[in-house]
UniProtKB/TrEMBL annotation, chains A, B:
Pfam families the UniProt entry points to: TetR_C_6, TetR_N
Signal peptide: none
DNA-binding region: 38-57
Residue ranges of every copy of the HTH tetR-type domain listed in the record: 15-75
Domain of life: Bacteria
Protein name in UniProt: TetR family transcriptional regulator C-terminal domain-containing protein
Record bears the keyword ATP-binding: no
PANTHER family xrefs: HTH-TYPE TRANSCRIPTIONAL REGULATOR BETI, HTH-TYPE TRANSCRIPTIONAL REGULATOR RUTR
Alphabetized UniProt keyword annotations: DNA-binding, Repressor, Transcription, Transcription regulation
Organism: Agromyces soli
Length: 210, 210
DNA sequence: GCAGATATTGATCATTTGGTCAATAGAATC
DNA sequence: GATTCTATTGACCAAATGATCAATATCTGC
């Protein structure tokens, strides 16, 4: 039973098929994690023979690395777009922290955590992980630097603060991923932590309408 | 070449052999990560036939979960011993943060990160991960609560602050694990963050002799 | 020494993984 | 309608994984 009897896939141009496979891998990663992005699983998801996936990708290590980059870079772009609409660094930083910690991106968090672990045995992925971390850090650092220039934040090393904040946020998200079921608000306390790092008065980063 | 030609293992009592296998798994986890704790790898490390490992352990999932618990609970015990020698909550909290972030436990951090990922597909491990997180949070919460009682810290929810601090520290360690090669001091900034969370003046958590 | 108890092993199995390659089928072109 | 090009596939392979079990070797008690 349950031999899905896949029929022959409709012929596509190489570009279309490559995209279809990349999308299948992406959806799989978001739903079941990077570890589920396997040759056969991707093929099944794309409605295609396993050999075709192998044909379109140099190796699974590379496909996994690309899939990770696809998922994460989309997240970065999304956040950057949100930041653009805000008036100043203070609002941007507050929104940044709240949005990243709002729990609506647990699927992406899972991809991050698995990438950290898998990167140990997949050098292509490891390189991509570092690149995406740099991208994230850059976004945060830009906000902080702008705040310092505007005289709103106080720190001698915006880059270090950005790394620190990124690490804190990643850890809190990873924690929430494992402790599913607890309803603790992740965002309320960290604002005070960031205020401490940047010499701000208590409550300076609270949401405007709160 | 390189056929190790293992000779028959010297006979041990079940208790001794079980310990030997557990130690082999532990060493393997610390050196190469939880993902390297495989039936054959543990057997080779213990100088024993793979079947013997299977004989002494209900399943590899369980062995991995136990190995994780062994590694992490030792770390918790170590930190608790360190805390005992300090006079007050303020010194304890400062030391806690500095010690956890001093970079000397990257092997344990790797075990943590892999446990988060593997826990998705190993329920026994997932249960153990939550238990060990609870233990860690308990240690931190005790310090914070003592500080609040002593009038040194200011927070309405020591439990939440403890979770928050644990998440932050885990994230920073995980980040350092991936970005090996950077020499950024991980501990300097977080003190200010914690000060922000606990209503402390800047520098209150700095090392005494600094 | 001998015999029994049992710790240990080799052989083997089923699964899952990534990967290769000749063969096939279907669309496009003539 | 026949032919060519190539996207797609089935049939493999090697490696690694967890696991089982009858057979074997070795220690212990007599």
């Amino acid at each position: 039973m349950s031999t899905p009897t896949r029929q022959r896939a409709t012929r596509m141009s190489p570009a279309e098929r490559a995209l279809s496979i990349a999308n299948a891998a992406r959806a799989l990663a978001l739903e079941e994690g990077l570890a589920a992005v396997t040759l056969r699983a991707v093929a099944a998801r794309a409605g295609v023979a396993p050999a075709l996936v192998a044909h379109y990708v140099p190796s699974m290590d590379v496909l996994i690395a690309r899939t990770f980059a696809s998922v994460v870079s989309a997240e970065v772009a999304e956040i950057e777009a949100l930041l653009d609409g805000l008036p100043g660094p203070r609002e941007q930083l507050g929104m940044l922290v709240r949005t990243i910690l709002d729990g609506s991106r647990d699927d992406v968090t899972l991809v991050w955590v698995e990438a950290w672990a898998l990167g140990r045995r997949n050098e292509t992925l490891a390189v991509e992980v570092r690149a995406q971390m740099d991208a994230w850090q850059g976004v945060i650092q830009d906000v902080i630097s702008a705040g310092v220039d505007a005289g709103e934040f106080e720190t001698e090393d915006p880059a270090a603060v950005a790394w620190q904040l990124l690490g804190m946020v990643d850890g809190l998200n990873a924690q929430a991923l494992v402790r599913w079921g607890d309803t603790t608000d992740r965002g309320s306390l960290i604002s005070h932590a960031v205020e401490g790092m940047l010499g701000l008065p208590r409550g300076a980063l609270d949401a405007p309408g709160a």
